[in-house]
Structure formats: C-alpha cells, structure tokens
Fold this sequence. Notes:
Blueprint: E1 2-8, H1 10-14, H2 18-27, E2 31-38, H3 42-48, H4 58-65, E3 70-77, H5 80-88, H6 101-105, E4 114-116, H7 120-130
Antiparallel strand pairs: 1-3, 1-4, 2-3
Helix pairs in contact: 3-4
Bound molecules: guanosine-5'-diphosphate (GDP).
Guanosine-5'-diphosphate binds near residues 52, 57, 61, 91 and 118.
Amino acid sequence: MERTLAIIKPDAVERGLAGKILDRIEDNRLKIVALKMLHLSKGEAEGFYKVHSERPFFSSLTKYMSTSPVIVAVLNGEDAIKKWRDLMGATNPKDAAAGTIRKEFAIDIEKNSVHGSDSHESASFEIQYFFSNIEIF
Ligand code: GDP
C-alpha cells in the first residue's frame, strides 16, 4: 500500500466539482484516509510549491492557489501515486487523455483542477505539509 497527496484546486472547488472528483477517487479503489478544506495564504502556497520557485510561473501559480479554498486529501492504495496521477491526466488539459479529470474539468495549464504527488519523496513532504500523523487514518 502507498500514500499520496491529492489537492482539489481552487478552480474546481469554486465550480462545485469536489464531489465528482472525490467520487472518481473512491471509484478507483483509492481510499481517502485524511481530508480537509483550507484557504492557503500566498506564503503557504509558496512553501508547498518551493521546488518550483525558479519557474517563470511560480508567482502566478502561488497567487492562484491562494485565491480561494482548496481541499487536500491523503489517498491510500496499491500504486496510489501513479494511479492518482493517471486519473488526473497531463498537466496541460490540451494534452490530457480522454476521460481524465484534467481533460474533463481543467480550465488551462495553471487552473488544472487537481494536484497529485509525483514521487515517494514528494508524497512524504506534501502529506506532512498538511497533516499530522493523528489526522491520517
Ligand atoms: P503537475 O505535477 O502535473 O501538477 O505539474 P508541475 O509539477 O509541472 O507543475 C505544478 C503546477 O504548476 C501545475 O499543476 C500547474 O498548476 C502549474 N503549471 C505548470 N506548468 C505551467 C505553466 O507553464 N504555466 C503556468 N501558468 N502554470 C503552470
């Protein structure tokens, strides 16, 4: 079993897509073992995305991620990191495969509705960024 961090980003929460996205998670044998809604400050978004601090879109990305609430969740399951990224689809919805969350729901390459950890290292950093051990079941 493996854990990964999922975020339902501001564009998706604002448009009332959280329930549909959580359904897809549970329908694909990923178990939600922690869940909360929070409104990130710009600084908290910068800390979360610090690996991207040199990228040209860092300022725009962290501003967007702090515009309105997000839903963060820890998912548990076999091959959870890859499984969740496969369900999400490619970063740019134009490149995302049919049937993926980003293909169906994302607005553009930045407002792309969902986040998922891309490795074991990032999953463990990202999970502890939002949750303490006693909040994960
Ligand atoms: P992910 O792992 O698929 O989320 O993609 P990355 O780790 O490469 O990028 C993190 C996030 O930054 C993406 O999910 C987008 O929200 C945003 N992003 C990535 N590339 C771009 C870009 O070229 N322009 C803008 N404005 N945002 C981007």
